Structures are given as structure tokens and as C-alpha cells.
Amino acid sequence: MSSTGRRVPAIAVALAGIVLITSVLILGGGVGTPWFQRAYGDLIELFVAAAAAATAGWAAVHSTGRTRLMWLFAGIASGSWAAGEAVWSWYELARGIDTPFPSLADVGFLMFPVAACVALLVLPSRGSDLDRGRRVLDATLATTGLALVSWETALGAVAAAGGDNPLAFAVSLAYPLSDFLLLALLVLTLTRAVASRAQLVLLAAGMAALSVSDSGFAYLTTEGSYDGGAIDLGWVFGFVLLALAPLVSVRRAVEDEDAPALRRSSFLPYIPVVIAGALTVGKALTGHRATTGQTGLVGVIVALVLVRQYLTLRENTGLADELATREAQLRHQAFHDALTGLANRALFQDRLGHALDLHARDLRPVSVLFLDIDDFKLINDSMGHGAGDELLLRIAERLGTSLRTGDTVARLGGDEFAILLEDDGDPVVVAGSIEAALQAPFVVKGRPVTVGTSIGVVALQPADAATTADALLAKADTAMYAAKRGGKGQLRVFREGMSLTELADNRMSEALAAAVAAGELRLEYQPIVNLDTGAIAAVEALARWSYEGREVPPSEFIAVAERTGVIADLTDWALDEACRQLAVWSRTPSRAELQITVNIAPPQVTDDDFVRRVADVLAKHDVSPGRLVLEITESSLLADVEVARRVTAALRATGVRISLDDFGVGFSSLSQLHAIELDIVKIDRSFIDRLDTDPRQVRFLGSLLRLGADLGLDVVAEGVERGRQLELVRELGCRLVQGYLLARPMPADRLPVALVAPA
Ligand code: C2E
Ligand code: MG
Ligand code: MG
């Protein structure tokens, strides 16, 4: 029980108690003969000083950094004092003579305040410079107060005594001066140190007791009346406290680690001021006249106190300002999106509510645009959330610059933005210009990224004046979903009845997921004809789904599948089914060369694992890779061209061919031609559409075909519906054609062996 670490301080405290009581009895109470008192005094002081040096040394060994330095110097302070005391005792006890003044002992004693000052200076202190000005003032205030006290007591008397021996005079002056310095430093340290409270109080009290005794010793020695007694008691007391300080600190170290600096420290600088004031008043009352120096010091103190009060006042005003700024910041945070700095949903609803009020009063126009970024999830997944955030930021910037100052742009969350328009302009025109503004590529992580946006528009009609902000926003949202359903990059104006479709949309996505899982989708095949031979070169596999007795157009359910992530399973299924069917056809010799094209969606193009799955399916159905064509759309390449390049290259390396579908619709089409290695391009229907009516389309198709030939690509003309179109296509030298004119998509069992192309 007595040997555990926690018990050590208890023993030390007990020992300290015994030392103090005995010392009070012998040194203060005059118990024993004068020689005994003297011997006891010398030895007990030597003992406690050595003990203080030892515990400080021990603490230095067990601590690190500046705390270790602090204890080291505290140990040096006590140690040198102990050495001085040893010299002193040697004169008095061994040689039996009065110690000469000055002597070697004084060197040891004087080392104490010097080393103690260093210890205080290296003590870790608060780094904040919030109240630095006040702290400097505090130090000056305390120092001035102490100077006055010191002058009234030791320093003034010692200086006044002068002396014939210059060395003795210097040494006796050194005592009060160094103690004065130490006391001032102590006051200063107590106001700013971040150390254990118990430890600091013990250290400070110990050092204070020691320096008061030291100064008393110097004063009495000058007067020639020093004879131990209370002065010695001060030393014993001081060193006992110093010896205990490191032990207490160790026991409390953990709990006190985060203890705040002394709270009441702000009054500490006033203590010397109060004492100085009391002394001055006391002197005045006893009829002494103050010297000019003293009056001057009092004046300085009064001035300093006034400045200090002023600074405190200013600090409080500063605090109030800071609070106001902080509050404004918090208010801003509550109403703005942290990422983009745009208004958030709360602020948007507030502004919209306000706009509706104005509308109710004077029919001010109100419209809301609801904006959603197409395939944003894809960018997030393939390029990382950092890239996603960067893209949102860039979009927010562009939205900000493409609108007028009166409009409110908000980020509602995720990739959803809302815009409130409150003027006479046509919201559809504004929406169109926003769509255009967002079309140019964004630079994200140093790479160009193109995004599409689906925009829902709702304009407040005079009839629904009583609507709420929430209801209007919900309508814009519904219109946006309708835009998404219609494919990407679309714009829709809200119509009554859309809400039903929207509701149906959610049910549809669940039903679609279930249908894919249950294998309830079908594939139809549309021939791609080789005009040279009239044979079916390939068939494009197109998914079909009937839901609640209705055939849902692929444009609708593929969009739903992409939004909900079902597309991955859908693609895997389509790939498997198409290859299975191809294997069946291959058993007919005339179809041994037939190729199949399967549409794949954006997520697959940036999925490295997709390459392995394709190879697995081919192996499973024993289909050679050269007979499979994967059709990708430009939007697949939007998210991350680098990854798309890698995945398509890996696919091509297995022998599978890549076709760029709907070529010419996306404005960056041409740049994709060299970004990705391709085998085939399919010219979009829209270019074939006016071929027979617009001569420019003919020239355009002609140059596209030459470009394809130069790049070594096969070119497929898609959507040929009329004979004249076919003629022109053939004349321009296009060999591969797909369209209703030749054949519509059909079930596998209806596929003819060859199609004779109409001339
Ligand atoms: P797509 O890949 O461009 O497919 C061609 C679409 O054009 C098909 O529509 C086809 O029926 C239609 N088409 C063919 N010839 C003509 C014509 O002469 N005139 C007109 N007006 N249309 C013609 P469908 O089957 O409705 O598919 C629409 C889109 O849905 C496809 O466009 C494709 O992007 C997507 N899709 C269909 N099945 C799948 C699938 O299994 N997976 C994926 N990811 N997308 C699919
Ligand atoms: Mg296609
Ligand atoms: Mg197409």
C-alpha cells in the first residue's frame, strides 16, 4: 500500500508536515539552544533545498519538451541554493564562524532567482494573442507595483545603506533586485501559463516565499541584524512547497492536462498594486513624505490601470463585433449551400413564398425551373466524389453567370438545382439558354467533362394563384422527371396530369427491376443490310417490355433503368440473350457469319469488370468475339473519357467491335472519333431524315462517309424509311443500312435469311 506510485505524494506530504511543524517549533518558537537552532536551521534548509532539487530532477526525467526544460531549471535553482547552503553550513557548523559576506554561498543563493526565472520563462504558455496587449500591460503594471513595494522595503533600504565594500554592496543589491524580477515574472506567468493548477500554485507560492526571505535576508544583513528565525522559516517553507510541486503534478498530470489557465488570473496584476497602494497610504498616514520617484511610480500605476480598463472595454466591444459577424456567418450557412455558395432549399422556398405573395397582390409573374444533371451519378462513381463536387461547383458558377441578378438560383441537394424567375421573360427561353450555357465541356480534375441537363419548367398561371411554394416546386420537379423520361438533355413544361405519370414512374421502375430479374423482357432484332449483297450483315438487338398490358417504348424504360441503376442487370441480360440467340442462328449454315449488335449504356463503358463479363458470356454460348458488336452512345463517353478509352480498348483487344451509335447528335461527336478507338459509326436518323429534301444533308452525309473511310471505319446509315433516302445513301457509297424501309425490329423466329434491297 505504501509503495505504489499514488502513495508517494502522501508520504511526501506527511514528511513535509513533520518538517514544517518541527521547523515552526524550533525556528519560530525558539525551542532548543541557540546553537541547536542554528544547526537545525542550516541542515533542514540544506535538506529541503536538496529535496526540491531531487524532485524537480525526477520530474524532468519523466517529462518532455518545454515542461522538461522547466523542471530542469527549477532543479538547478534549488540545487544551487542547496550548494550555497552547504557552503554556509560548512562555515557555521564545521568551522564554527559567522559566514563572511559576501561569500561563495551567495553565488549559490543568487543562482536561485536566475535559474528560477529561466524555469518560468520556458514554461509553456498560452499562444493566443487575443489579449496580448493586455498581458504586456499586466506585466508592466505588476512590475511597477512591485518596484514600489520593493523600494518601500528591501531595495530602497539596501540602496540607501550603501556600504564601503563595493562587492558586498553589489551582492546585497543583487538579492532584492533578482527577487523583484522573479516576483514580477511569477505574476506574469500565473496569468498566462497552461500548466497544472496545483503545480503552478505550489511553485509560485514556494518561489514567492523564497524571494521574500531572500530579500529579507539581504535587508537584515545590511542592517546587521540577521539571525535566522522567521527568515529561515520562509526558506524551509518555500523549498518544501517546491519539493512537493513536481510530485503533485505527476499525480494529477492526467486530470490537469487540459486545465484552463488560472481563471481569476486577471486580478493577479493588481495584487502588487494594492500592496503598493497600502504601503504608500500607510507612509502618508504616519507622516512620511513621498519621494518624487514614488509619486512618479504611483502616477504610472494609475495611468496603467486606466489603460488596462480601456483595453478590457475594447476587448469586450471586439467580442460583441465578433459575435455579430459569427451570427451573420451562421445565418448565411443556414440559408446557403456549403459547396456552391448558392441559396439552399430553405432560402429558395422563402423567396418563392415571397414571390407568390407579390403575385397574389399585383400578378407579378412567377416561374420555377427545376434542373437535374444527367448521369451525374456516373461521374461521381467513375471519377470520385471530389470530381463530382468540382463539377457541381463549376455548374453553379455557370448558372450564376447565365442568369439575371433578380433571379434566385438554388442548389436543392445532390445534382438538383432550382431557379426562380420573377420577370416577364419567357421561362422556356431562359431554360433553353441555361441548357445551352451548360453544354460546353467543364474542366474537372483537368479533364473535359460534358453534361446534359433535364429541365422542368412551371409558370404560375393566374388560375392557381392560391398555390404554395412547395406545390409549385413539386410541379417543376414533376416536369423535370417527365423531361428525363423522354430521354436526356430535354426540357418540359409542366402540364396537369403529369403528376400521374410521375407517380406511375416510381411504380414502373420497381416493376422494371422485377421484370429484368424475372427475365420477362424480350429482344427484337432489326436487320442491318449489306447493300452490295442484299444479305443481312448483322442484327441489332432491341429490348422490349410490356407493362400492365402496354408495350413501353425503350426510350422510356431505358431512361428509367439508367436512373435507377437497373440498366446494369438489363444489359447483362440482353447480352446473354442476344448471344444465346446468335448461337441458335449459327446452327443454320447461311447464318454462320451473322453478327449481332447489343446496345450498352454509360455505366458499362466505365466498368472495368464489364470486359470480363462480356468474355464470359461469349464463352458460355461459344460465340466468337468477332461476331459481337457493342453499341455505345456518346453520353457513355461524357463522364470519363480516360476510363471509357481503357474499357473499350480492353473490349477491342478481346476481338469484340465497338460501334458509336447515334453519331452526329452530340455536339462533341467529332472529337470522340479520335478519343476512342472505334470500328463502326452509326449515323443518326436525323441526318437521314431530310436526305431526300435537303441537299445540304446529302453533302454532309457524303463528307461523313469519306471521313469514315479515311479513318478505316464502317459506316451504318440508320433510320432509312423511304426509297429515295436509300437511293441517295447507296449513291454516296454507304454499304450498310438499317431502317423501317428494309425491315422493322422483329422477333427472332421471323428473321429472314436475306433481304432483297429495293432498287
Ligand atoms: P438505337 O440504339 O438507336 O436503336 C435504333 C432505334 O431506332 C430503335 O428504336 C429502332 O426501332 C428505331 N428505328 C430503326 N429504324 C428506324 C426507322 O427507319 N425509322 C424510325 N423512326 N426509327 C427506326 P427502339 O427499339 O425504340 O429503341 C430506342 C432506343 O432505346 C435505342 O436506340 C437504344 O438506344 C435504346 N435501347 C433499345 N434496346 C436497348 C437495350 O437492350 N439496351 C440499351 N442500353 N438500350 C437499348
Ligand atoms: Mg443502337
Ligand atoms: Mg441509334
What does this structure look like?
The chain is α/β, with parallel strands linked by helices. Helices cover 60% and strands 12% of the residues. It contains 26 helices and 16 strands. The strands form three sheets. The chain has an eight-stranded mixed β-barrel, surrounded by four helices. Strands 2-3-1-6-7 form a five-stranded mixed β-sheet, with helices on both faces. Strands 4-5 form a two-stranded antiparallel ribbon. α2 runs parallel beside α9. The longest helix has 44 residues, at 292-335. The termini are far apart. The model is unreliable at 1-8 and 250-264 (pLDDT under 50). One magnesium ion is lined by residues 540, 599, 631, 661.
Give me the count of strands.
16
Mean pLDDT: 84
Number of helices: 26
Strand order of the biggest β-sheet: 8-9-11-12-13-14-15-16
Instruction: State Rg.
Output: 46 Å
Helix content: 55-70%
Q: Report the bound ligands by name, code or SMILES.
A: ligand C2E, magnesium ion
What structural class do helix, strand and pairing data support?
alpha/beta
